[in-house]
Structures
1.
Amino acid sequence: MFTLPKLPYAYDALEPYIDRMTMEIHYTKHHQGYVDNLNKALEQYPALQDKTLVDLLSNLNSLPEAVRTAIRNQGGGHFNHTLFWPMMKKNGGGNPKGSLAEAINKQFGSFENFQNSFNTAAKGVFGSGWAWLAMDKQGKLMVTSTHNQDATVSLAQKPILGLDVWEHAYYLKYQNKRPDYISAWWHVIDWDHIEDNFRQAGS
Ligand code: MN3
């Protein structure tokens, strides 16, 4: 069965950019909810319980129809949030370095261009979803977005950096001002972790 991964920092670690109460509710209620609902959906499907989320989400069309939507939504929710927490840290932010910085400059021209493109994608999600820096099948970096809890792996894109733009991720502190949440979030990115994601995606 799937379990909630440990949060790699305290609920208040990302203050003032992401507030303690949002973090606690987001992790203990929303993420836990995806895990619980996924496990419930898989109760009647023991063969699927042994598969990884990447396996399940990469092959949605081959899953039994009765459980496909639950895996897409609840499994996607569990998968995306599991990726999301370690992408951030206390005293994060700044600029990417090393091979990731080089790849970003090559693909987008500059870090600022990449940021603008990512911000536009994040602001442009209508309703609930995620903005992503991902790697396509050819190994090229791309900025994209997904709706609801759709995972980039379902589209054969490997996730490197992602931002949850569901209202539950920011409404307590930022209310309707999603752009303010997006600007603040750049201050908590753990670029070492993102570079690890980049290296793994390319290997
Ligand atoms: Mn969320």
2.
Amino acid sequence: MNNSPVTAAQIAHAIRNVPDFPKPGIQFKDITPVLADARLFAGSIDLLTEEFAPGSVDAVIGIDARGFIFAAAAATKLKAGFVPVRKKGKLPYQTLEQDYALEYGHATVAMHVDALKPGARVLLIDDLLATGGTAAAAIALMKKLEANILGVVFLIELKFLGGRGKLPGQPVRSIVQY
Ligand code: AMP
């Protein structure tokens, strides 16, 4: 058993590039090999949460659907709650909603109205930062609930898409960059 800390390079090595998924011209970054490897999965959570001590965060926010996997594991490690940001129509109780632009058309994300108390110390985690539209919409919802955003962390950042530009003033960090 290799107990040495997992590096970003080891995670990068495990991420599988799938060309033309879900449509021609998109190179999908498949994180399932990272999840399937016990050491890499735990190591990815360690890297995503490394700035934070257990008890210093009230809630980790995860974005539908792959973001849930990392955010939920990070929440248990940080002894924090977990709050889902979901696609519109999936959450059962009253929601706040935020529209955002896609390449063609638009999408809407939602959060329960009572998911966060004003001033809650929160960390947003998603698997991948592409154009930044999804994260910007999630941040808009967190701001509507007056959350104190301590960090916005992605396992993967597609730097050439400039997604950080949509998250001005936010403490953005990523583990693996392309
Ligand atoms: P965006 O709003 O453009 O930043 O897109 C971010 C969301 O889309 C993330 O939640 C990702 O899960 C997903 N996504 C976008 N591009 C890719 C890609 N090339 N590979 C895997 N997931 C992607």
